[in-house]
Amino acid sequence: MKKRAIWLLVLALVLIVAAYDAISSEPTYRGLSIEGFNYTPYNLDRFVIRDKYGNAASGGGDLMPGAGQGSLSCCYKLKGTDFTIDWYAVDQDEFLKNIYAPLNEIHKVTQVHLSPTEVEGSAGMHILGLHFYPDDHIEFEFRNDLQGTRIEYAEIDDWLVREQGKTFDPHSREDAAAFRRTARIAATGWLKYRFTDTRDLDLYVYYTLLVNPKFDEHPAVQKILSETKDKPGVFGAAMEALPAPIVEELKTGKFEHVQPSKKNTNDVIFNSRDIPMLPTKNIGSTRRVFAMRLV
């Protein structure tokens, strides 16, 4: 009898909570799977989403730059329109300097507002994607598939390798360090010019890494940046067609430098002073410049 009474009490509480959710003006999302997309230049260790009603959801798992697609955690309930995300990242290059030292995590707290959203599909297909950008802002996106990456760091690095003519070992420390350098430069391209198109970022990284880290201060490149703003893929195409005399000026550094607008240079995470000036061939060369593969 006592067990029956307890069972009925629990059932009543469940029904009361369900009824409250049903009549509440705040949207309630049940059966959520969480998918994090990491566009920062650091490893995304973990994150926790909290609403104002005590619900929480988590994800992550040491996601390297550009990773996260297809990596899910479930099953969660979130409610409301305003959420707080606690997230933790690790600078892998700093970590590798002394792997026995206490882990120095980068802790961030980001607020996200999500307008009430009609979620389609069955409960098992409700995927909430979190896109972590280099400026620390996060965008929510409901999906019903395992896709959704917006910046393809791995494809950019693969293209650089193919253009320089070397098949490399992704498990070597040297190549892993080179990939992280690529991700840092590409993330800076997003910060300065909001590039997300892979071809735009291919050429941005190529010219920064192998031609001149200040290539975007050339008047001709500044003109291209202005004319191709908000036109995905067009910057990359224009840089591929850059006249040979301008490319030569970029290689030598002998040109009038035009500083990019201040709003584009805030929070730049890749310092051009880290890159020595290196001679390089045109795009399509069969050579890889190993001097940049720093561990």
* Count of helical stretches: 8
> Number of DSSP strands?
8
Strand order of the largest sheet: 4-1-7-8
Estimate what percentage of residues fall within beta strands. Answer: 15-25%
SSE pattern, N- to C-terminal: HEEEEEHEEEHHHHHH
Could you tell me the radius of gyration in angstroms?
Answer: 23 Å
Parts with pLDDT < 50 across at least 5 consecutive residues: 8-20, 275-295
Task: Characterize the main sheet.
Answer: 4 strands, mixed
Give structural attributes.
2 domains, four-stranded antiparallel β-sheet, disordered C terminus, four-stranded mixed β-sheet, alpha+beta, 8 strands, globular, 295 residues
Explain this structure to me?
The chain is of the alpha+beta class and 295 residues long. The chain has 2 domains: 29-143; 153-292, no CATH class. The protein is 34% helix and 22% strand. The chain has 8 helices and 8 strands. The strands form 2 sheets. A 4-stranded mixed β-sheet has the order 4-1-7-8, with no helix packed on it. Helix 3 (153-164) crosses helix 4 (173-193). It is globular, with a radius of gyration of 23 Å. It starts with a helix and ends in a 43-residue tail after the last helix. Residues 8-20 and 275-295 have low confidence and may be disordered.
